[in-house]
Amino acid sequence: MNQTICYILIMALVTYFIRVLPLTLVRKEIKNIYIRSFLHYVPYVTLAVMIFPGILDSTSSPWSALVGFIVAIIAAYSGRSVVTVALLTCGAVFITEWFLY
Amino acid sequence: METNIAAWKKGVKTGIPVAFGYFAVSFSFGILCKKAGLNPFEAVLMSATNLTSAGQFAGLSMITAMATLIEIVLAQLIINSRYFLMSFSLSQKIPTDTPIYHRLLLSYGITDEIFGVSIAQPGKLNPYFMYGVMTAAVPGWTLGTLFGVASGNIFPERITSALSIALYGMLLAVIIPPAKKNKAIAGMIVVSMLFSSLFAIIPVLKNISSAVKIIVLTVVIAGCAAFFFPLKEDEA
Fold first, then answer.
1. Segment A15-38, tens digit of pLDDT
2. Are residue B146 and residue B219 in the same domain, yes or no?
3. From the CA of A5, how many Å to the nearest CA of chain B?
4. What is the ipTM for the molecules in this complex?
5. How far is it, in rounded angstroms, from Cα B219 to Cα A14?
6. Which of B118, B132, B136, B231 could form a disulfide with B235 if both were Cys (CB 3.0 to 4.6 A apart)?
7. Measured between beta carbons, which residues in chain A are less than 8 angstroms from residue B229?
């Protein structure tokens, strides 16, 4: 086996190890309200930290990304499904970039 | 809980836009693989087994730079550490009697987006919903890499640009609706984005890797929120 493939598989193992540990070890319902609350809030904080300002670098121009960001927030706030929000965000960026370039 | 097949189908439907977004991102990854001298088999193998964007991009540049094994392992541990928290959070979202083989399989699919849309499901999570999302998203990620590495750049940048932001749109669709009903969550999201921006602007903080930033901010902000706004019994 060449070195690249060996490295790739080790990366996969390490990544899987991180993902599998909590899900297989924590098999009971946690009673502690503080830990429960923490775990309940984790997705919102982690995803929010990842979304902004990262979203501004995701397209060819921060301006089109900003338009996409605003459109996504409005669409999500008005209760559209995940699919619809994704499509509207794409559309907004596509149209904005059409005007920019 | 709905039947497993219905849950799976619902998952596939939710997974399709994830797949398109993944295709766009992993397409760019494939192009980079080609530039770095990886052959199509190696590139696709990496996407199929790792299933993570930041980790793969970092891993690729480290392989190219002839980093040592220990450096690569450490980098992956840090970059992907957020999955540890997501997996922990997911452990409380699936039914407690979920058998071990489901837990082993589900773990493979913990990515930001698959986790996000799964955790957004009301009530307990049926593992088959997440399998449905994976059924669409994993081929999207793997095929994108294959096309990128095999073809070079065949899509106009405008298309990949619009598709790349789809993933962010989805994540927003996951976190915004609960924020509407819960002021604590809304506040948390604003504070998180604010601090995340500060970490991107302030000179000293700017040097911190984004993986470390994600973990530190999550532990501190979600920790404070849990302390100040603990869930009420009926919410938890």
1. 999 999 999 999 988 889 999 899
2. no
3. 6
4. 0.90
5. 22
6. B231
7. 37
- Helices and strands in chain B: count of H runs, count of E runs: 12, 0
- B55 and B146 fall within a common domain: yes
Residues B203 and B148 in one domain: no
Q: Are A51 and B192 in contact (CB under 8 A)?
A: no
Give dist(CA A54, CA A57) in Å, integer.
Answer: 6
Give the end of a domain, one of B154, B173, B192. B173
Among A53, A82, A101, the residue with its CB nearest the CB of B170 is: A82
Amino acid symbol at A4: T
- Contact assignment for A26 to B91 by CB distance below 8 Å: yes
Q: How many structural domains are present in chain B?
A: 2
Q: Are B55 and A11 in contact (CB under 8 A)?
A: yes
Q: Do B167 and B200 reside in the same domain of the chain? A: no
- Measured between alpha carbons, how far is B54 from A60 in angstroms, rounded to an integer? 19
Domain ranges in chain A are 3-100
The range of the structural domain enclosing residue B217 comes to 182-236
- Chain B interface disruption, residue of A26, A40, A61, A99, most B CBs within 10 A: A40
Are B74 and B126 in a shared domain?
yes
Query: Is B124 found in the same domain as B154?
Result: yes
The pLDDT tens digits for A58-92 are: 888 899 999 999 999 999 999 998 888 988 998 99
Question: Measured between CB atoms, which of A15, A20, A36 is closest to B52?
Answer: A15
CB atoms B229 and A14 under 8 Å: no
Residues B161 and B66 in one domain: yes
Residue A45 and residue B188 in contact, taking contact as beta carbons nearer than 8 Å: yes
**Is there a single domain that holds both residue B72 and residue B107?**
yes
- Min Cα separation B143/chain A (Å): 17
